[in-house]
Amino acid sequence: MGEYIQEVPVTSVSLDVTLQGTLESIDQAAVPDGLKTLANCFEPLCSFKTTFTAGSVVVKAEATVPVTEAASVGAVTSSFKSLASSSTVALGDALGVKVEGVTRQVTAQQRTMTIIVAPPPPNPPSPYTPPVAPNNSGDGVLSTGVLIGIIVGALALLIALVVFIFVWKRKRSRDAKVAPGPPPVAATPPPIPPYASPNAQSSS
Predict the structure, then answer these.
(1) Is 200 left (phi over 0), alpha (psi -120 to 50) or beta?
(2) Same domain, yes or no, for 15 and 70?
(3) Range of the domain at 93
(4) What are 47-66's pLDDT values in tens digits?
């Protein structure tokens, strides 16, 4: 966002100083600078303007300060009142010219003025947060959580193994009970003795 124009309420403080000489003989750069310094009017809080007119040389000095800058308004107004109450000799010495007169009345009025407002400065970058370095104090040593996890896993595996062996043995025992035995062997009849004829016994 670039610069933009804005209307702001301001306070303008002014007074007239009459210098000895002509418009050509007066340094119209040095006199405004001197009056600006004496008025405590410094940019950017205060803008200063002088107008030179003939009749000896009448310099109208005007300082303008935004109303929101209350401290600057008070300082500039106080400085103008000091100028108005200064002697012509002291004021002339400060400006480097002969002063014939100065108005004793300081005029202050409020009005609006068009100013150019600069864009706000960009937000500062976020402060850099360095990454947290890992804690190497426990190198080679497992943490408590890891140890608990290993123990729980080992117990679960052991329980599963015991259950498997138990089921397997029970199944084998059941299978052994129901397995058929060998077929029965048929009984062999006793041998039949040889038949003896009764006639054979009597003939003898």
Answers:
(1) alpha
(2) yes
(3) 4-117
(4) 999 999 987 899 999 999 99
